[in-house]
Design goal:
Layout lengths: L2 E7 L3 H14 L4 E3 L8 E6 L6 H21 L5 E5 H14 L5 E3 L7 H9 L4 E3 L7 H4 L11 E5 L1 E2 L10 H4 L4 E2 L2 H13 L4 E5 L7 E4 L2 E4 H8 L7 E5 L8 H9 L6 E3 L7 H6 L6 H14 L4 E8 L6 H14 L3 E6 L17 H25 L4 E9 L5 E5 L5 E5 L8 E9 L4 E5 L2 H9 L1
Parallel strand pairs: 1-2, 1-3, 3-4, 4-5, 5-6, 7-10, 10-13, 14-15, 15-16, 19-21
Antiparallel strand pairs: 8-9, 11-12, 17-18, 17-20, 18-19, 20-21
The structure holds S-adenosyl-L-homocysteine, iron/sulfur cluster and FE3-S4 cluster.
Length: 453
C-alpha cells in the first residue's frame, strides 16, 4: 500500500538535492511524494540554519503540521513528523523540548539511515540522530535507482566545509569537507542522463575544493568536469558554490576548454574591503577576487558572474562599505544575492565586537541591492535581440508556455509547444526584466529576417 510523503525544503540547493535523495531512499518502503501535507503519513521539514529566524520558521511550520498528525491519530492511523537538515543538526534538543509531538530529528549526514529511523519511530521511540557518522552516507544512498529529476538537476559531489568564515554556521551543521569518489559521481551522472537530465549542476558547500579519489589518484574539479563532459546525454555542466581560494588554474582553463561547461559562475566574495574579508576569515583579498574574474574573462570572454554579499558585518565602516560598492562596479555582475549580516550562535562572529545597529545594516543592504539590481537589469536588457540556445527545464504557469535557461543562467519564458520540454532550442530574446527575459523560438523565417537585416 502506498504511503504519502510530504517534504518541505528550505535553504540551499544542497537541501533540494538531499530532499530528492530522501524520497529515493523512501520509495522502496512504499512512500510516494505529495505536494500537500494534509493526509501525509510522513512529514519532513528539511531545514536551513544560515540566517536568524530560521528556527522560529520551523516552529511555526511544525505548528501547522501538528493538527494533521492529530487528525490521523483520530482515525487510528499514525503519521510521523520529522525535522531534518541544518536546524536539526544545530538545535536538535531545542526542537524536541519545545515540540514534543516531533517524532524524529536528524542531521544531514544521516539520511541513508531513514528506513531504520522510521522503524524506530513507528515503534513509538523518539528518534534523535545528529551524529556525524564515520561511514559516508553517499556510499549508502542510491545512485542508480533514482527518480527522474527533470532536464536540469543537481548532483552533490562534495559536502561540508573547512573554511570557517567567522559569520557562517555551515562547518558546524554539515561537518568537515568530504569529496565523493569519482566513479560514484560518474555513475550517478549516467543514471541521471538515462532519466532524461541534460544539465547537471554539481553541488557542494565548497564545490571547487573537490578532491575525489579515482584509481589511487586524486582528481580536482577541473578533471572531474572533463570526465563528466564525456557522458553522451549530458549537454550542460555547472557547479556551485565556489570559494575564491579554490579557483585553481586548471578550473579557470576549463572555462575556455570544455564546451559543455556553461559560461556562468557563482563566486561569492562577501565584501570588497580587505579589512572586513580578514575579519570574516575569508583568506582572500578584493584584488585576488578581481584577478580571478579577469583571468576567467580572458579564457571565456562572454562569461557571466554572480556573487553573494553580506551588508553590515561587525566592524564594517562606511569606507569598507564603499569599497564593496566599488568592487561591484569593477566586476559587473549578471546576478547577485545580498544579505544583511545576521549573528549566528556558536560562530566566532557572535562574540566579535563592533556589531552595527540594524538601521545601518538596512541602509547598506539597500544600497548594495540597488546597485546589484541595476547591473542585473542592464545585463538582461543587453541580451535583447540576441539568439541563444535555451534548455526548457520547467513548464510555464499557463499552457503553451515553457520556462528555460540561457547558457548564462538567465531564466526566460517562451510560447512553445510542450513537446519541446527538455530540449535545447534557439531562442531570440524579445524583452528583458529585472529577474528574467522573454523570447521567441527562432524559426527559419526569423533567422532569414535577421540575416537579411
Ligand atoms: N558555501 C558558500 C555559501 C554559504 S551560505 C560560500 O562559501 O560562499 C550562502 C551565503 O549566505 C553566503 O555566501 C553568505 O553571503 C550568506 N551568509 C552566510 N552566513 C550568513 C550570516 N550569518 N549572515 C548573513 N548572511 C550569511
Ligand atoms: Fe560558510 Fe565560508 Fe564555508 Fe562558505 S566557505 S560554507 S561561507 S564557512
Ligand atoms: Fe542552510 Fe544548511 Fe544549506 S544552513 S544554506 S541548508 S548548508
Amino acid at each position: 500500500m502506498s504511503k504519502k510523503l510530504y517534504i518541505k525544503t528550505y535553504g540551499c540547493q544542497m537541501n533540494v538535492y538531499d530532499s530528492k535523495k530522501m524520497a529515493d531512499v523512501l520509495a522502496p518502503l512504499g512512500y510516494a511524494p505529495t505536494e500537500e501535507p494534509d493526509g501525509a503519513d510522513l512529514m519532513i521539514l528539511n531545514t536551513c540554519h544560515i540566517r536568524e529566524k530560521a528556527t522560529e520558521k520551523v516552529f511555526s511550520d511544525l505548528g501547522r503540521l501538528r493538527p494533521i498528525k492529530e487528525a490521523k491519530a483520530e482515525q487510528g492511523e499514525k503519521a510521523l513528523i520529522a525535522v531534518a537538515g541544518c536546524v536539526a543538526q544545530a538545535e536538535g534538543d531545542v526542537i524536541t523540548k519545545r515540540a514534543n509531538y516531533v517524532d524524529m530529528v536528524f542531521g544531514p549526514q544521516t539520511y541513508h539511515l531513514l528506513p531504520e529511523m522510521i522503524l524506530q519511530a513507528n515503534g513509538g521511540e523518539r528518534v534523535i540522530n545528529t551524529d556525524f557518522p564515520v561511514e559516508s552516507k553517499f556510499d549508502l544512498l542510491p545512485t542508480g535507482d533514482i527518480a527522474s529529476q527533470g532536464p536540469s538537476a543537481f548532483l552533490s559531489i562534495q559536502e561540508g566545509c573547512d573554511k570557517f568564515c567567522t559569520f557562517c554556521v555551515v562547518p558546524y551543521t554539515r561537518g568537515a569537507e568530504y569529496s565523493r569518489p569519482v566513479q560514484q559521481i560518474i555513475d550517478e551522472a549516467r543514471a541521471m542522463a538515462d532519466q532524461g537530465t541534460s544539465e547537471v549542476i554539481l553541488l557542494g558547500q565548497n564545490v571547487n575544493a573537490y578532491h575525489g579519489t579515482h584509481a589511487g589518484e586524486t582528481w580536482d574539479l577541473a578533471r572531474l568536469i572533463s570526465a563528466l563532459a564525456e557522458i553522451g546525454g549530458i549537454t550542460r555542466i555547472r557547479y556551485m558554490t565556489s570559494h575564491p581560494r579554490d579557483m585553481n588554474d586548471d578550473l579557470i582553463a576549463a572555462h575556455g576548454d570544455v564546451a559543455k561547461l556553461m559560461p556562468f559562475l557563482h563566486l561569492p566574495v562577501q565584501s570588497g574591503s580587505d579589512r572586513i574579508l580578514e575579519l570574516m576569515n575569508r583568506k582572500h583579498t578584493a584584488d585576488h577576487y578581481r584577478d580571478i574574474i579577469a583571468r576567467l574573462r580572458q579564457r571565456r570572454t562572454d562569461i557571466a558572474f554572480s556573487s553573494d554579499f553580506i551588508a553590515g558585518f561587525s566592524g564594517e565602516t562606511e569606507e569598507d562599505h564603499q569599497q564593496t560598492l566599488q568592487l561591484i562596479r569593477d566586476v559587473g555582475f549578471a546576478q547577485c544575492y545580498s544579505f544583511k549580516y545576521s549573528t549566528r550562535p556558536g560562530t566566532p562572529g557572535a562574540v566579535m565586537g563592533g556589531m552595527l545597529p540594524e538601521a545601518i545594516k538596512d541602509r547598506r543592504l539597500q544600497e548594495l541591492q540597488a546597485l546589484l539590481q541595476e547591473q542585473q537589469l542592464a545585463y538582461n536588457l543587453a541580451a535583447v535581440g540576441q539568439v541563444m540556445p535555451v534548455l526548457f527545464d520547467r513548464k510555464g504557469n499557463r499552457p503553451g508556455q515553457l520556462l528555460g535557461k540561457t547558457p548564462y543562467n538567465t531564466s526566460l519564458y517562451v510560447d512553445a509547444p510542450e513537446r519541446l520540454f527538455g530540449q535545447t532550442v534557439d531562442v531570440q530574446i524579445t524583452a528583458a526584466f529585472q529577474n528574467g527575459m522573454r523570447g521567441e523560438i527562432v524559426t527559419t523565417e526569423t533567422t532569414a529576417t535577421r540575416t537579411a537585416a
